[in-house]
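Proteins fold reproducibly. Next comes a concrete instance:

***
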Amino acid sequence: MPNFPSSHVSLVTGSSTGIGAAAALDLARAGSRVAVHYNNSEAAAREVVAQIEAAGGTAWLYQGDLSNPKGARRLVSDVLAGSGRIDCLVNNAGSLLERKLLLEISDELWQQVMDVNLNSAFWVTKAVAAHMVERGSGAIINISSIAARNGGGLGAIPYATAKAAMTCMTKGLAKELIAHGIRVNSVHPGVILTPFHERFTSEERMNAMVSMIPQGRAGQPDEIAGMITFLASDRASHIVGEAIEINGGMLMD
């Protein structure tokens, strides 16, 4: 387990449930002070903060709608005002919103999915990068998806497209920001047991996806969180611009 200095601060967007919550808890266990962000799920986010504090860690709670640049900039400003620094940014906020086949996808839905999944990460990263560049260090971890590589399941074209674009954005950011001591990487979860699939995936579809995993099971949020914490630490000091797949063998390079 990495051991962050006592001054270390992580901002995890969308950290009320699922992978985001697991990442916040894991980073806190490694010694980071964590800014827990939510948009609508306040009770769940408060529970994450309570768990971190019960274990002796430090956490703060922040609400923000990141689907617009003003909300994204406000979140970063609030975190910096409260903690004084951001050493690690985890761009986890995102959602499929709803499954729709191509001819059912409205212009409004397409734009909403791009704003929630791709544009939000860009806006938050831009605001955080200004601070990290000034300090000359930092780690940014973008949470993409196996959908970025395989196009996602039926009804997920906008989401898969946004995640693929996030992968490309990660590489561009990595090339530019490493000159300022900022490492940028992405993590691509496969089928993970989170509220995401409880909401958007039927039991039949879930069983079909799990049957395609050589390991024979879906993943757990903690299995993604461990990689996030590693990438945020000095142990990953020479890892730059990588897209790391975690999927039990469902997709192998």
